[in-house]
Amino acid sequence: IVELNRALELRRQLGQHDQELSLLDRLGQAQERLRDYPASLETHRRALALARETGSRIGESSALTGIGKAQQQLGSPQEALAAFEQALAIDLELGNRLAQQIDYDTIGDVRADLGQFESAEEAYRSSIAISRERGDTAAEAATLTSVGGLHYRRNEYPQALAAYESVLAVHQGLGDEPNQAIDLMNIGMTLLAMGETERALASFTAATE
Q: How far apart are CA 134 and CA 143, in angstroms?
């Protein structure tokens, strides 16, 4: 943190705005990792102001994402959602598909936490579409897990089960055994909620083998 601040001050004095913006982003992320969310929020707000002053749309998107993450941790989901949605608008403008995929995932998470389940699923489905377009099956599986959790929270157990089983198939194809165990636990919990005790027990057993 100390070294980043020193480098940041030097870049500011030299008027090297691109490097200053990059360092602000790194500083905000470091503060986030240290769980100093108020400081991270302030740093990302500084980055946002600089990005807008210098016309850096990529920097603006990154700063808004950092602001959203900090606001999430500080218990301000509405403010976080607003920041993430602004970042998405910029990433759509820039045509950055990977960033859009991540934006949709994050927006889905916040909307779900706010109880906006239908719009959360819409965001997740948009993320999945981009993951499929990019051939990123691991990202697709991660978002499908979120979809399953969304249905589970709504007591829509057959839909949750279908999502978790799809995720399991993806992880089996990838040979990802740790995530397969998690999938089997999710399937077991869903089957238990559906009253299918024997199938749930079989799933739990398979997860621990």
A: 14
> Does this model's pTM top 0.85?
yes
Residues ≥6 apart with Cβ < 8 Å to 179: 141, 167, 171
For residue 6 the two structure tokens come to 């020193």
Kindly write down the DSSP assignment for every residue of 70-95, as one continuous string: HHHHTT-HHHHHHHHHHHHHHHHHHT
DSSP 209: -
Distance CA(139)–CA(74), nearest Å, equals 27
Assess whether pLDDT exceeds 90 at residue 18.
Answer: no
Q: What is the pLDDT of residue 16?
A: 67
Joined together, the tokens standing for residue 177 give 């055994």
For position 107, what pLDDT does the model report? 98
* DSSP H helices in 15-156: 17-33, 37-54, 57-73, 77-94, 97-113, 117-134, 137-153
Q: What is the mean pLDDT of the chain?
A: 93
Q: Tens digits of per-residue pLDDT, 45-77?
A: 999 999 999 999 999 999 999 999 999 999 999
